[in-house]
Amino acid sequence: MLDGTRHTAPRAAWASPAFMAGAVALAVLYVGNNLPSALYGTFRADMGFSALTQTLLYAVAVAVILPCLLVFGPLSDVVGRRVPMIVGLLAFLAGDALFASAQGVGWLFAARLAQGFGMGAATAAAQATLADSVGRIVPGDPARGHRRVAMTATACITFGLAVGPLLGGLLAQYAPAPLQLSFVVHAATVVVALVAVVCAAPGRAAAAGGRWRPARLGVPADVRRTFLVASASSFLAWGVLGAFSAVLPSLVGDLLGTTNLALTASALALMIGTSGAAQLTFRRLRPLPAQAWGLGALALGLVLLVLADMGAGEVVTVPAMLCTGVGHGLVYSGALREITETTPPSERGAVTSTYYVVSYLGLGAPVIGLGLLAAQHGLEVASQWVAVVIAVLCVLFVPLVFGELRRRPGSAAP
């Protein structure tokens, strides 16, 4: 510069205490939410419950998460982020304790209810804490700050979901007390997150104030068609993740003829971890093409999974996990960005909340159907049917996405 002044880019403040507290809490919650997935088959063999009960154990937490999100998300705007996060983490700690000391199926359901309440109470406040930190992450560059917040949330949520079953499988396979130790270890991480939240999360003084009311739902008429396509795609993507999070380790164990919990849990970890990698790698892909490619990848992955179930075995199991993971990541990120970009700011909160309701229904409803089918026909046959149905629906939805591309040609531009 002519005046000799040295100008530097704003420095990123990754170590903002509130930002770090929100990220730690979010990661710990999502790791714990999926940790039991590695152990459902072992609990089932130990306690003698049915495949339907196994799927209901997964679904019951989803049933609690959704209404809690709608209640506690807006509440954190009024009372501050700290209180809902503390309440949620304490509830999750109770869930870990119930799992570690479980004496029967009722204990497992109580543990999942506590975990669902903890997720619903704390996750919205934790994500809001990340968003509140935008101005401190990259001072003077809010767009860059928002991107870093989105990447951090993606990493905490998706990779947390992947690490959970892997942690549970490794400890159950190679450490003592296979049905207890992983929950004790996770409880210790919850305590660490609690300390971080108590010390650094914003309290009432930083709240927006006003009166509390539950999250508003609704979709304005001018974005209804876009919402239907995006939310239907997302429903299918989360349906795959929900159904197979509940049964995939058990299913892979049967496919590969192994009881190694670390190996069977790694299949689920691979699928979810691939989803996170796809979201980060293809984040520059426009939303509608992302959904179209994602639906195709989901369909291909599910077909490969059926082939594996019919005898192809390990030859196609890994490609099946990779394809379904990529498909889920592209559909989820593409659908959410499409809704965000096309919805007026004044309606964005209601539309996004409605989108998450549909996504959580996708996470919970197909897994119940899978459980009902498994009760009549066995887990392998039920998994094949569910995979075929969702694959066919994915293929049928691709033309609808391309129809949106033709209707709005500018949406395909990078």
TrEMBL record:
<feature type="transmembrane region" description="Helical">
    <location>
        <begin position="381"/>
        <end position="402"/>
    </location>
</feature>
<keyword id="KW-0472">Membrane</keyword>
<dbReference type="InterPro" id="IPR011701">
    <property type="entry name" value="MFS"/>
</dbReference>
<keyword id="KW-0813">Transport</keyword>
<feature type="transmembrane region" description="Helical">
    <location>
        <begin position="85"/>
        <end position="110"/>
    </location>
</feature>
<keyword id="KW-1133">Transmembrane helix</keyword>
<feature type="transmembrane region" description="Helical">
    <location>
        <begin position="183"/>
        <end position="206"/>
    </location>
</feature>
<dbReference type="Pfam" id="PF07690">
    <property type="entry name" value="MFS_1"/>
</dbReference>
<keyword id="KW-1003">Cell membrane</keyword>
<dbReference type="InterPro" id="IPR020846">
    <property type="entry name" value="MFS_dom"/>
</dbReference>
<feature type="transmembrane region" description="Helical">
    <location>
        <begin position="292"/>
        <end position="310"/>
    </location>
</feature>
<feature type="transmembrane region" description="Helical">
    <location>
        <begin position="51"/>
        <end position="73"/>
    </location>
</feature>
<feature type="transmembrane region" description="Helical">
    <location>
        <begin position="150"/>
        <end position="171"/>
    </location>
</feature>
<feature type="domain" description="Major facilitator superfamily (MFS) profile">
    <location>
        <begin position="18"/>
        <end position="406"/>
    </location>
</feature>
<feature type="transmembrane region" description="Helical">
    <location>
        <begin position="355"/>
        <end position="375"/>
    </location>
</feature>
<feature type="transmembrane region" description="Helical">
    <location>
        <begin position="260"/>
        <end position="280"/>
    </location>
</feature>
<dbReference type="InterPro" id="IPR050171">
    <property type="entry name" value="MFS_Transporters"/>
</dbReference>
<protein>
    <submittedName>
        <fullName>MFS transporter</fullName>
    </submittedName>
</protein>
<keyword id="KW-0812">Transmembrane</keyword>
<dbReference type="InterPro" id="IPR036259">
    <property type="entry name" value="MFS_trans_sf"/>
</dbReference>
<feature type="transmembrane region" description="Helical">
    <location>
        <begin position="227"/>
        <end position="248"/>
    </location>
</feature>
<feature type="transmembrane region" description="Helical">
    <location>
        <begin position="12"/>
        <end position="31"/>
    </location>
</feature>
<feature type="transmembrane region" description="Helical">
    <location>
        <begin position="316"/>
        <end position="335"/>
    </location>
</feature>
